[in-house]
Each structure stands twice: as structure tokens, then as C-alpha cells.
Specification:
Number of helices: 6
Shape: globular
Order of helices and strands: EHEHEHEEHHH
Strand content: 5-15%
Strand order of the largest sheet: 2-1-3-4-5
Structural class: alpha/beta
Distance between the termini: 57 Å
């Protein structure tokens, strides 16, 4: 049976990295961009692991683990919660682990596997591929994950374009009649317009 993992992050790029990294035969990934979406998914699905970014606008990461406990209201055990952050933190109270950005696919896979107990010897779930005889299985898994990651993100301009197109960016001028701030040269001179 696949483990349910909830990812709460506003960035489509992070969502894609997680989706491409985690083994689909072992994990079912749920996505939320807001606190309200997260609450609904926690209540409806009782995930076995939660990944939450400290950049989600309407989530207070200090209070979030207690909120999850209230949302579940003893209907299910509170799952391990991993904090995704760019800050240099080793641990945060009430979080099972901290995943520092930028993170490698190997580190993400290792933490998720460890925290969902899929790394146990009794795990009988199918594996994506078997290492060649005589090789180190961990090295093989690292290479497999790195290849998946590199293949998916080899065209960086395509990834940026897809991310910008799919995330919520304003498409028209503000309704109050004001113009968007113009970005000018970094040398302090006046911005120029080329219409």
C-alpha cells in the first residue's frame, strides 16, 4: 500500500521536484498551496507524512504542527512533519526533520523513506529497479534518482517558463489605475522604456 505524502508549498517547481523524486509505487503525493487546502487534505486523507514550506503565505510554521493535531482530532495519528526551508536550521521543535533548500533528490527520498518507515527490513513494496549484482544498492538508488532529476530539469528555460505560466502571476494592470513598478538598470540610472 502506498504511503500518502502531503506537500504544502506554493512553488510549482518544488512540487515538480517532489513528484519526480518520490517513487510512485511507494508514495501517493497530495498537493496544497494554502493553509485551507492543507487542512482539507489532512482531514480527508490523513497523510502519513507532511512536507511544509516555511514560505507558504498563510501558514505560521511555529504553530502548524499543533494545528495538524487539532485538525485530525484523534481520528488518526499525527504524521511526521518535515519543514522545507532555505534557512540554515538543523532542527525545529515539533518537526520530524528539516529539509534545507536547495535539497538533493537523494536527501528528499532518504528523509521521506525514513520518516514513513518504508526503509524497514519488512518493507515488501515493489522497487522501481534492481541494482546490478555486486553493486552497492544505495549508490544505485542515488544514481537512479539523480538521473531522473537531471532528465526532468535538463532544460532549465523550459522549467522556468512552465513554472511562470502555471503559478498565479497577475496578467493585467492593477484595478486601482496604478502602474506596476518599473525595474530599471542596477546602476541607479533612470529606467528606459522600449515599447
Amino acid at each position: 500500500m502506498r504511503k500518502r505524502v502531503l506537500l504544502i508549498d506554493e512553488s510549482l517547481t518544488v512540487q515538480k521536484v517532489v513528484a519526480l523524486t518520490l517513487d510512485k509505487s511507494r508514495f501517493s503525493i497530495l498537493y496544497a498551496k494554502t493553509r485551507a487546502e492543507a487542512m482539507r487534505l489532512v482531514v480527508e486523507n490523513a497523510p502519513q507524512l507532511i512536507l511544509v514550506s516555511d514560505q507558504v503565505t498563510d501558514i505560521n510554521v511555529g504553530a502548524f504542527p499543533k494545528e495538524v493535531e487539532v485538525w485530525l482530532n484523534r481520528r488518526a495519528p499525527v504524521p511526521p512533519i518535515l519543514l522545507i526551508t532555505a534557512q540554515d536550521l538543523k532542527e525545529v521543535r515539533h518537526y520530524a526533520a528539516v529539509l534545507k533548500k536547495p535539497f538533493s533528490p537523494q536527501n528528499l527520498q532518504r528523509l521521506v523513506t525514513e520518516k514513513t518507515n518504508l526503509g524497514d527490513a519488512g518493507d515488501s513494496s515493489p522497487k522501481a529497479a534492481m541494482p546490478p549484482p555486486g553493486s552497492n544498492p544505495e549508490d544505485f538508488e542515488d544514481q537512479r534518482l539523480q538521473k531522473i532529476f537531471n532528465d526532468a530539469f535538463s532544460d532549465e528555460s523550459r522549467l522556468v517558463r512552465e513554472t511562470l505560466e502555471s503559478e498565479s502571476y497577475p496578467r493585467s494592470a492593477p484595478s486601482n489605475g496604478e502602474a506596476y513598478p518599473q525595474r530599471g538598470p542596477s546602476d541607479g540610472s533612470e529606467p528606459t522604456s522600449s515599447y
